[in-house]
What we know:
heterodimer, A: 17% strand, B: mainly alpha
Amino acid sequence: MEHNHTGHVMGNPSKMGFWQKLKMSMSMTMGMDHTGLAGREMARLMEIDIRNKFFFSLILTIPIILYSPLGTEFLKLNLPSPIPLPWLLFILTTPVFLYSGWIFLYSTYFALKSRVLNMAVLIAVGITAAYSFSVLLTFLGSADSYYEAAALLITFVLFGHWMEMKSRRGTTDALQALFNLVPPQARVFKDGKEILVSTSDIQLGDIIILKPGDKVPVDGEIIEGETAIDESLVTGESIPTAKNIGDQVIGGSINVTGSVKFKATKIGKDTALARIVAMVEQAQNSKAPGQRIADRFAKYLVIVAVGSGLLVFGIWYFVMGVPIILALSFAISTIVIACPDALGLATPTAVAVGTGLGAKHNILIKDAPTLEQVSKIQAIVLDKTGTLTEGKPKVTDVVAFNNFTERDILNYEASVEANSNHPLAKAIMEEAERQNAVPLESVSKFESIAGYGLKAIINGKIILAGKEKLLTDNKVEIGNAREILDRLASEGKTLSLIAIDNKLAGVVAAADTIKPNAKKAVEKLKQLGIEVAMITGDHKKVAEAVGRELDIDRVFAEVLPEDKEKYVKKLQDEGKFTAMVGDGVNDAPALAQSDVGIAIGAGTDVAIETAKVVLMKSDPLDILRAITLSKATVRKMKQNLFWASIYNVLAIPIAGGILYPGFGIMLRPEFAALLMSISSIIVATNAVLLKRVEKDLIVV
Amino acid sequence: MKNNSKNLIISLAIAILFSFFFVFMANSKIGVAKFDIYLGTIWVFFLSFIVVLSLAHTFKKDK
């Protein structure tokens, strides 16, 4: 039985009245379920609320400490007090207990109601015992009290919780980002007229008009015209695809050049995009939130703590025969010292430092469980385009034949391609500029031969540029250039041949170039014993060429966008803890399916929102940095958990008064609270030492 | 839910038993103030209730 937000007052906090804000603040519990849009908003409000509660209790705790035995006996302070000290402390502590500490009491109510034991129960027992007995003693006129124990406890635990919420922030808006790809309105062709309708009103079979720059609203089939459509948002492939009559268009992609009409074949939840949305949603919901280590420890500690409180009280009161107040002091000390606030800080501080360090190096890790999971990666699936390669074609080879120079080739190609929309044209233009093969010649009788290439006349010479078929159709002899052409094609490169006056002049080869660090990254991942696989929608030849170059053994090529997750699942089914690295919308389901989704570079919003780890730079080596960081953080988390729990185990007997009969050493509750805070500081300091791992991140 | 109610009843019963036990023991001591008995009873009841409930829950989960 999870407590969720159904009973909460939601709204803009800046517009809320004081009572409304207070009501919301008082109805929050620890460990609430923060899913869905409302949940994400709630998590944000809760973080602000916890922060406010922390500062509120911090401000009041300072005078409480100064007026408490800690201040008067230890620091030898003698501050003036208008009213008797216990009453002053009562006035100062009550708001801390009732406002800042309320979250623990309220969470305990829900935890006990559903028989769940968590840290909130222990904290609540500790603060309630310390506070209520202090109040009783004060009302009875005793000078003794444990107010500072209660106040300190609340302050420290709230700080830990606030740090934890901070590190957990960055929850996903994946679904919203996906839906933003769909235009709100579309041009529908009806009764010979073009009318604007909202996308949700499009019916199956409607004819939709696409003009250059329009976003495609739904899936369909082209019935008139031809164009190039940028499907990179949906398929991740950077080169716009040429579309003719009968070709399919995908909702969410962008029409680049021509005007076309298409018939809507899939609308609403049947579109490819909607299916991706559904898959992301399903994958996200299918994962149970990993139970945190600290909570597991706390579950047992709660029994040990409360049980020892009872045992210690019974032994002192009945067996040793001491007065009830002394027996209670021992019992409360025991519970206070067993209260796992260092345990509560152990992981959040390590996570805060770890994620902070990551952010400094452009590695964003979205939540604490992810930080832990990254260290466990056994297999990693890398998307080719954008992850291992630059994601845009670049000219790799210029070869001249029949006494032409390379400069001629580039110059003629660039002159002709300047008039073309082909994605390869851009790469050629860039290369021509880089090699100073400009100015361009003036072109006449320019003609685009759809699907094959271009024909034009430059300085009276007939120029043919494009696919091999264009040249052979025009009776251009390939001759002994065949060997070079075959070699270039086998390397997975896109070729543009050029013939001048029906004589083969040269060839320009372009390919999506491999990122500088990709090879090193793959090599190091393998050294760590991680299985590396590559996945792409590209042609098998291209994929294998890249795979060979990078020494990747497992290559999945020609994979449809919606099938990518199946390959991730395949590795998971082999029993491997699998990570997926990608940057396109098409990667979103695979990212969600994987155990750790890693979005790389200036990828799409969706990939970034779905992924648990975002590598802001497009450097594949950052994958290794994330793993190094994760391993170091997990090591720190374990160290901290060990120190925090061993401290509790050792301190409980001392607090229970084991040293009192023999040595007269008694741990009063306030000293127990002080010791507890020291243990917290040790744990926090240990976490900060994690920064030493930074030098390893630079070296990677 | 049935199991949970059973746990709750057992926990309450044991907590009350412990409290009576405490009152009985405390009363048999000489010169115990009434307040001491009240305070002790609350403490014993409260803690034993939580301990038994926790134990019941933990065993149920581990089973």
